[in-house]
Amino acid sequence: MITVIVVDDQPLARAGIEAIVAGAADMTLLGSAEDGEAALALIHDRSPDVALMDLRMPGMGGVETIRALSAAGAATRVVVLTTFDGDPEIRAALSAGAAGFLGKASEPDEILDAVRSVHAQRAAISERALRLLAEPTAPPAAEPDPDLQRRLGFLTPRERDVMTAAAHGDDNDTIARAMFISPLTVKTHLARAMQKMQARDRAQLVAFTYRSGLLQTE
């Protein structure tokens, strides 16, 4: 059973997302919060597997909350629910450690699938978010992290390719078909990439992919 909390300052939106989660047979709703500070307290108290979190909230916003969770080493994975009004916020949330991005207008099944994906340590980034991240007219991303760029130098070309595909949200089977290799080989490449990049899991590897500037050189 996947345990979930909902974080949103808008009562109507929060209630709608709560109802979606509560209706899933493989999920348990542990509670909800209306801002980042309340979310941190709830996560500390109940240790949910996944938090569905609004990006823009009064007081402590989504990005700041995600940074605090990452700094504390929390195991809770965050799926950001946003209107995608600002590309910089998406990039910042990913760099902070978010494992997924969805629009608030997403279908219920999309939200539930995203929860399942991040719980399984896969990234869950919507096509629209990927387009915004890749949009050349969008505000530029932060300068690549020099230490992460150094770590990239230890990767083989195939490991870089697999890492890039994972950052685009592809699962192991999809990557395997595209590269004409087995899913087990994909898993091996990802494990080696995580070791070389010093990423604790797939979600952090995706974040490191963006922060290293690897996608900007595609």
In short:
The chain folds into two domains: 2-134, Response regulator (Rossmann fold); 146-217, Arc Repressor Mutant, subunit A (Orthogonal Bundle), CATH 1.10.10.10.
- How many alpha or pi helices? 11
Instruction: Compute the average pLDDT.
Output: 86
Low-confidence stretches: 136-141
% residues in beta strands = 5-15%
Summing up helix and strand content along with how strands pair, one would put the structural category as alpha/beta
Q: Which strand order do you get reading across the main beta sheet?
A: 2-1-3-4-5-6
The CATH class of the largest domain: Alpha Beta
Most strands sheet: 6 strands, parallel
Order of helices and strands: EHEHEHEHEHEHHHHHH
Q: Calculate Rg over CA atoms.
A: 17 Å
Helix content: 40-55%
Assign the CATH topology of the largest domain: Rossmann fold
Would you report the number of β strands?
Answer: 6
CATH architecture of the largest domain: 3-Layer(aba) Sandwich
Shape: globular
CATH superfamily of the largest domain: Response regulator
Distance between the termini: 38 Å
